[in-house]
Specification:
Distance between the termini: 35 Å
Strand content: under 5%
Largest sheet: none
Number of domains: 1
Structural class: mainly alpha
Number of strands: 0
Radius of gyration: 22 Å
Helix content: over 70%
Order of helices and strands: HHHHH
Length: about 120
Amino acid sequence: MKEYLFPILLSALVVPGAGQIYNKEKGKGVVLMALFFLVILGFMITLSVSLAALLPPNMAVSPDQVRGLAEGLMEEKSGFISTFWFLTLAIWGYGILDAYLGARDLVKARNAKPPPEL
């Protein structure tokens, strides 16, 4: 059971791809981590640029205006934010499932009987 649980927890709680690296699938793990971080980076850059466009020229915002800016950003980028969450969940879910499948294959290979010698 531990052979399955640890890679799953790594991919679920640390970062997608960590379970693959633990399962000795380094290439797949690095690609999954890079994809995950690129999606996060793209999300932050897009929201930063969109927020900068909504700010007044002097960049001075009162506490009352912050709520309006957040609501304006949510309205303007609602489709993008939804797409980001679905994409992030897909990467995260794939990482967990693939970590489990990789661990299962490792356990099968370890428990397989060696071929008989001739």
